[in-house]
Specification:
- Helix content is 24%, strand content 28%.
- The strands form 2 sheets. Strands 3-2-1-4-5-6 form a 6-stranded parallel sheet, sandwiched between helices.
- It has helices at 10-21, 54-60, 75-87, 119-131, 209-215, and strands at residues 2-6, 25-30, 45-48, 67-70, 93-98, 115-118, 136-142, 147-153, 174-181, 184-186, 199-205.
- The protein folds into 2 domains: 2-117, 3-Layer(aba) Sandwich (Rossmann fold); 132-216, Alpha-Beta Plaits, CATH 3.30.70.1450.
């Protein structure tokens, strides 16, 4: 994929390094000249420009990008970048960083955001995930589709132990997308047996989360 990242601070550069390592084409757009440090992500294309200016984005060729990530430390900037990317350049996927949780309600389809990532919310979810064995934990919200990435860790007393994945009676608008087990990522197959301690990752709408709990015997 070709990915544009607005904001080349510590967060933007870290994302760029990960994407480059996974063989994606990355363009970093940074307004502050002090943060334009090509040596930190040598494989990326660097653009010294204001990502809130339409002309700068046109010159950078944003319309050729598959994904735009608004990763600055300013929520106002991230919203403007997201809106321009979606409405002016028809970028297929727009991901935005939420710095202040009080602004999280703004980061939706009205501002062109497909996925909003709130660091405080994510950290809180990870803390919950570490202690909430047997309960459903919401890890990430996909705003435009109103779907969530949720996780459930099967307890030692789970009635599903030894049963195949196909035995799960999941509700509509939900899908089991991965099983994490002992450091492994398992793609769910019908014959795959479930084990205590398995971390099950689902994509589901909020409305069916209680039905997922019921399907897992909680």
């Amino acid at each position: 994929m070709r990915v544009a990242i607005a904001g080349a601070g510590a967060v933007g550069r870290s994302i760029a390094l990960e994407l480059v390592e996974n063989s994606h084409q990355v363009m970093l757009i940074e307004r502050d000249l002090a943060n334009v440090q090509p040596e930190t992500v040598e494989a990326a294309e660097w653009v010294h420009a204001d990502a809130c200016e339409l002309a700068s984005l046109e010159e950078a060729g944003l319309e050729r990008c598959d994904v735009v990530i608004a990763a600055t430390g300013d929520d106002k900037v991230n919203l403007v970048v997201s809106l321009l990317a979606k409405t002016e350049f028809a970028v297929r996927r727009v991901v935005a960083r939420v710095n202040d949780p009080r602004n999280e309600w703004l980061f939706g389809e009205n501002w062109g955001v497909d996925v909003a990532v709130s660091t405080p919310r994510l950290l809180a979810a990870l803390v919950e995930e570490a202690v909430a064995v047997g309960d459903l934990v919401r890890l990430l919200t996909f705003r435009q589709g109103q779907a969530n990435l949720v996780e459930v860790t099967l307890p030692t007393s789970t009635p599903l132990a030894g049963k195949p994945v196909r035995s799960l009676r999941l509700p509509p608008d939900s899908a089991l997308v991965a099983i994490l087990r002992g450091g492994r990522v398992i793609v769910p197959q019908g014959d795959e047996g479930l084990e205590p301690g398995d971390e099950l990752l689902f994509v589901a709408t909020t409305a069916v989360e209680e039905e997922i709990r019921a399907a897992l015997g909680h």
